Amino acid sequence: MGGDHGPPVVVGGVKDYLKRHDGAGVCFLLHGDEAALRDELARAGLPEGVCEIRHTDKIVAMDEKPAQAMRRGKGSSLWNAIEAVKAGEAAAVVSAGNTGALMAISKLILRMSAHGLERPAIVASWPTMRGVTAVLDVGANIESDAEQLVEFAIMGEAFHQAVHGVERPTIGLLNVGSEDMKGHEEVREAARILREGGFGLDYRGFVEGDDIARGTVDVVVTDGFTGNIALKTAEGVARFISALMRDALTSGLLAKAGALLALPALRRMRQKIDPAAVNGGPLLGLNGIVVKSHGGADARGFGNAIRIAVELARSDYLTKVGDNLKRLTAVLDQPAAPGDGAAMETSK
Amino acid sequence: MGGDHGPPVVVGGVKDYLKRHDGAGVCFLLHGDEAALRDELARAGLPEGVCEIRHTDKIVAMDEKPAQAMRRGKGSSLWNAIEAVKAGEAAAVVSAGNTGALMAISKLILRMSAHGLERPAIVASWPTMRGVTAVLDVGANIESDAEQLVEFAIMGEAFHQAVHGVERPTIGLLNVGSEDMKGHEEVREAARILREGGFGLDYRGFVEGDDIARGTVDVVVTDGFTGNIALKTAEGVARFISALMRDALTSGLLAKAGALLALPALRRMRQKIDPAAVNGGPLLGLNGIVVKSHGGADARGFGNAIRIAVELARSDYLTKVGDNLKRLTAVLDQPAAPGDGAAMETSK
Questions:
Q1: Which residue, among A142, A169, A144, has the nearest Cα to A155 in the 3D structure?
Q2: Is residue A316 reached through a cis peptide bond, with omega within 30 degrees of 0 on the bond before it?
Q3: Is the confidence metric ipTM above 0.90 for this complex?
Q4: Do A125-228+269-277+317-348 and A1-111+286-315 have the same topology in CATH?
Q5: DSSP codes, B122-181
Q6: CA nearest neighbour of B103 among B186, B7, B224
Q7: Per 3-state DSSP, what percentage of chain B is helix, strand, and coil (rounded to 5)?
Q8: pLDDT value at position B267?
Q9: What is the mean pLDDT of chain B?
Q10: pLDDT, tens digit, for every residue of B107-137?
Q11: Is the Cβ–Cβ distance between A150 and A328 less than 8 Å?
Q12: What are phi and psi of B17, to 5 degrees?
């Protein structure tokens, strides 16, 4: 029921997913208003047995505060969808609904698997010169200490492997320079743990802001404050340049004629930075798979969020993350080597 | 002598500045190798008396560490140029040299005027849908407390007024959401001081990453870590989209023909995001005007950095910032109102 468009985009997304991807063995539990969902299913002409409706007439509104949604959300479509994961009925949940509520209720029902995380980390799939880079956290954890940054690295690596099919993803820590002495204490301490922790990650050191679009590494790790601002800044710049380009190519007869000739090439270019092709941000760090679709996504975008959820569910993502987080706890429990004391104490 | 190109770009920049802008009464002291500078001046054919050469054969290398540059930099072209400002011989210094050294030596010679600043803040002029937005700090101060963020707001406002000619610039604090409760303690405390401090600033509240390119406010205030990452991320995205566009418009005969027709419009578009037109980042918070040109800038870019320095020197920028910083100190020295104690203590 969530998102700006509700059932049409959710059911349309299921249809799109089945058309474009390998949906063998995938079934959908649709939580929400039975009549509305039944109408949409009839319109979509989906094969029998692929979708099952779980009726509820309670919904969490898009503008509801997380605390309120937690108090009065029980029995809502959002709540029931997450409950189904907890109960083992569903392997993953996909929602275009209220992000704060999805996060709070997921945490309440599924609980965090990562020990230091206050709330799930959100990962963004970022189109780059070399494909797609995973950037996390992009908005959930405002202040992240060294341990959390390492957790993001572990979860981001497993995510990228499962969803983008890269055998051994490379990892970088976002910083203001590539030298060891740069940046604040948390990021330098995280670098030390990643170098010495023996997690088997392909850690490549610090990367800078322009390395994201360059695709220097597969996974870029940062705190939720910086990550959210970097992501939104990038979206703003992309929109600004698109607007300039549109203006330029409609600014006169010659320009319009030129644009017409170049149209197929410009369309192919657009596909490379198509938001629908990268829609779907998993909430990492939970005991279960939860994928957030953009509220304004269309059916194709929602279909891509489903694809991400299915690929995570089919992979050994949860086991792998669990094992690596255990290894992190072991590393952190070790007594610090002489001389490390000061660094450990000053890291928050 | 600094930058990737040395004297040709510096002298070329002087020439470009005099050609494009009102250089009435502006004279230049060129610090560096007399022979090299004399050659360039002859080649440029600049009018007599506009430039005076101050010879030194000592230079600070582009890759020298700031601490080393401070120890052995005395008598170098960089050092002498800053000394000339301190001595009142020059109204401002412009350099394309080693950023860290420029910052360290400026601080040593000119000293900070802002009380809480550890080093100068760098301001970036960012092209937006509505003109130019000033973003600061973009790289010098890794961790910024509430007081420093307010200092950035005060300095950014005076800078924008002096250089971009906006009577009463609007100011926003960069955050992950626009609600009062969002973000970390430092940014919320800075918001409170800006709202209640009575500095006469047109403070508009929190802005998000995508508000920068949208031009929602004239001055965007953030800590140096986030600001540096936002700026470099944006540069990366802009380069990525430009590369995609170039690829698209050279991908076949039709596309090439289209690009040719649209060329004048595309060129006009390029001007709007031309790095040379926004080159020149002042180091704010010093008792004197210091402007950093990009090391790779061309003559036109260096000319723009000169323009920024001249406009700051012609304005009452330094007085205005000084007055407002005094007002800030007065506000911070006031005993906190009941109930504010906890917030003041937790802010670093």
A1: A169
A2: no
A3: no
A4: yes
A5: EEEEEEETTEEEEEE-SSS-SS--HHHHHHHHHHHHHHHHHHH--SS-EEEEE-S-SSTT
A6: B224
A7: 50, 15, 35
A8: 84
A9: 88
A10: 999 998 866 677 789 999 888 988 899 999 9
A11: yes
A12: -60, -45
CA angle centred on B31, ends B29 and B32, rounded to 5°: 150
- Measure in Å the smallest separation between the Cα of A292 and chain B Cα atoms: 18
Contact between residue B15 and residue B299 where contact means Cβ atoms under 8 Å apart: yes
**How many CB atoms are closer than 10 A to CB B23?**
17
Instruction: Give counts: helices (H), strands (E), chain A.
Output: 13, 10
The one-letter code for the residue type at B249 is L
Amino acid at A280: G
Q: What is the pLDDT of residues B144-179, one digit of tens each?
A: 889 889 999 999 998 998 888 888 999 999 998 766
Taking the C-alpha atoms of residue A128 and residue A213, their distance in angstroms, rounded to an integer, is 4
- So where are chain B's domains? 112-227+319-348
CATH of domain A1-111+286-315: 3.40.718.10
Q: Which residue of A has its CA nearest to B254?
A: A261
Of B240, B269, B270, which to mutate for an interface test with A (greatest number of A Cβ within 10 Å)? B240
Distance (Å, rounded) from C-alpha A249 to C-alpha A8? 34
- Interface with A, mutate which of B63, B184, B237 (most A CBs under 10 A): B237
Please answer whether residues A326 and A104 qualify as being in contact, where contact means their C-beta atoms are separated by less than 8 angstroms.
no
B244 to chain A, closest Cα gap in Å: 6
Greater pLDDT, B340 or B225: B225
> How close B203 gets to chain A, by Cα (Å)?
20
Given this model, what pLDDT does residue A335 score?
58
Number of CB atoms found within 10 A of residue B91's CB = 17
Backbone angles phi, psi at B52, to 5 degrees: -125, 135
Structure tokens at A161: 């492997």
Q: A344 falls in which pLDDT band (50, 70, 90)?
A: very low
Q: How confident is the model at residue A41 (pLDDT cuts 50, 70, 90)?
A: very high
Reduced to 3 states (helix: H, G, I; strand: E, B; else coil), residue A213 is helix
pLDDT score of A42: 93
List CB contacts of A42: < 8 A, sequence separation 6 or more. Answer: none
According to CATH, the superfamily of the domain at B112-227+319-348 is Isopropylmalate Dehydrogenase (3.40.718.10)
B1-12 confidence digits (pLDDT tens):
988 999 999 999
CATH class (in words) of the domain with range A125-228+269-277+317-348: alpha beta
Q: Which of B209, B234, B248 sits opposite A262 (nearest CB)?
A: B248
- The residue among A161, A166, A170 whose CA lies nearest residue A211 is A170
Can you give the pTM of this predicted structure? 0.86
B175, amino acid identity: N
Using a CB-CB distance cutoff of 8 angstroms, which residues of chain B are in contact with residue A232? 208-210
| A34, amino acid identity | E
The helix or strand, by DSSP H or E, that contains position A9, with its residue range, turns out to be: helix A7-20
Is residue B212 a contact partner of residue B126, using CB atoms and an 8 Å limit?
A: yes
Q: Please give the pLDDT value at position B178.
A: 67
User: Is the separation of the CB atoms in A306 and A90 below 8 Å?
Assistant: no
Three-class secondary structure of residue B204 per DSSP: strand
Q: Amino acid letter at B118?
A: E
Listed residue (B165, B116, B125, B168) closest to B143, CA to CA? B116
Percent of chain A with pLDDT over 70: 94
- Smallest CA–CA distance from A265 into chain B, residue: B248
Q: What is the DSSP string of A156-179?
A: HHHHHHHHH--SS-EEEEE-S-SS
